[in-house]
Amino acid sequence: MLTSTQLNTMLNLQDGMNKKVNPQWLTAGYSYLRAAMIESVEAIEHHGWKWWKAQKLDLPQVQMELVDIWHFALSHIIIQHNGDIDSASSAIAKALLESHTEVTFDGNKINFSKATLVENLELMAGLCVAKRFEVPLFLKIVEQAEMDANALFSQYVGKNILNFFRQDHGYKEGTYIKEWHGKEDNEHLVDVLAETDSSVNDYADVIYQQLENRYPS
Fold first, then answer.
1. Which of 99, 120, 175, 210 registers the highest number of CB atoms within 10 A of its CB?
2. Rounded distance, CA 118 to CA 182, Å?
3. 23 vs 30, 33, 77, 118, 175, CA distance in Å?
């Protein structure tokens, strides 16, 4: 289960990144759950669902889509709580403690604990269309995609910090160097995440500093 420290770290990072894009993001009317719905459908594509052709599960891509969905979901939840990070964190923690396994959608009770990964991705997409996001359902999908809470946390923080790092080093201006010492920046990120203990309190700062140490001066 995600800890309060992890939740607060992620919510603050999401708020910070959104402010970097638009300081008035809370009232901009962005369709974060529409974005989450699109990512859910893309995850279904990476999983494979077509009965008329051979398909292979691409689990790493499914996991990447889930990390993207979490970015949008956190944004939606922060808006629901009028930008109050502590309130948003408490609401997520409460939903996780309740740990329900059923949702009512279109008049039907659906037990997502007994559904397949694809069925649950489809359910999440439908709920997003209806402007709803169910944290327990999402965490069940994360589990089905062979990730745990710590993996979700580390991958989320890693991607968020890489986005910050890119912006701080000239991404918008076109001066950012994406490949260093024969590796792309996302490959360096994978190395940094593997070398760093995600339980440290200043995890996000450590990741940023590690990227800074590797980046050409």
1. 120
2. 37
3. 13, 20, 17, 36, 23
pLDDT, tens digit (0-9, with 9 covering 90-100), for 98-149 = 878 999 999 999 999 999 999 999 999 999 999 999 999 999 999 999 999 9
Q: Are 10 and 154 in contact (CB under 8 A)?
A: no
Identify the CA nearest to 128 among candidates 34, 195, 53.
Answer: 34
Confidence grade of residue 92 (pLDDT, cut at 50, 70, 90): very high
Q: What is the pLDDT of residues 34-82, one digit of tens each?
A: 999 999 999 999 999 999 998 888 998 899 899 999 999 999 999 999 9
Instruction: Please list the alpha-helical segments (H only) found in the chain.
Output: 4-21, 32-47, 59-80, 85-98, 117-129, 135-144, 149-168, 185-195, 203-214
- Of 60, 68, 63, 11, nearest to 37 by C-alpha is 68
Which among 109, 117, 77 is positioned nearest to 96, based on CA atoms?
A: 77
- Token pair 């408490």 is found at 90
Q: Contact at 8 Å (CB) between 91 and 81?
A: yes
**pLDDT tens digits for range 60-71:** 889 989 999 999
Angle between helices 4-21 and 59-80 (to 10 degrees): 80
Tokens 């994360």 belong to: 142
CA distance 117 to 109: 18
Q: What percent of the chain has pLDDT over 90?
A: 82
Estimate to the nearest angstrom the gap between the alpha carbon of 214 and the chain centroid.
25
